[in-house]
Amino acid sequence: MAENTEMNAKAKDIAALFRSAVEAEDKALLGDASTFAEQDFFIQLGWFTDQIEARLKKNTPSPDVLALMVALGGFMAKDNPNDGVDKAYKIWQASDARIRAATLCPREEIEENLSQVGVDFRLTPWPKNDDGTDRKNLEVTPFLRLCIPRDDTDSLEKYFKRYLKDNLLGEKPRTSAQVEQELKRIKAKRLVPEDHSEMGSAIVAWWMKQKEFKPLDFPDGSLGYLAQTAFGFAPRKGRKKAN
Question: What is the reported pTM?
Answer without folding.
Answer: 0.77
